[in-house]
Design a protein that fits this description.
Number of strands: 6
CATH class: Alpha Beta
Number of domains: 1
Strand content: 25-35%
Order of helices and strands: EEEEHEEH
Length: about 100
């Protein structure tokens, strides 16, 4: 399974979450998932909320267009980015991770 899949509803992204990180960032790939570091702890949905906010900012999407499909209590998650193609998401991921490397 690919980390990014096109569906009629939008792009589905497989994620591996690392909670309690020093900063929110996309770290790279983890198997067939995109690895994301979040400052929030994995308690009472705080990491899920932080994930939605991070993805909303990163992809310039309203939070209402980001839906957690599976993994509510797991580090492995699947999210739907409604109304966006997998190609558009892949382009933003590549641009964002290259930009982060230049700023490091």
């Amino acid at each position: 399974m690919s980390r990014l899949t096109d569906t009629p509803a939008g792009a589905v992204l497989n994620l591996r979450i690392v909670p309690r990180a020093s900063k929110n960032a996309i770290q790279g790939e983890h198997g067939d998932a995109l690895k994301i570091r979040l400052c929030a702890p994995p308690v009472e949905g705080a990491a899920n909320t932080a994930l939605i906010e991070f993805l909303s900012d990163f992809f310039s999407l309203p939070r209402a267009r980001i839906q957690l499909l599976s993994g509510q209590t797991s580090r492995n998650k699947r999210v739907l980015l409604s109304g966006v193609s997998a190609l558009a998401i892949q382009s933003k991921i590549q641009a964002g991770t290259h930009e982060g490397k230049r700023n490091s």
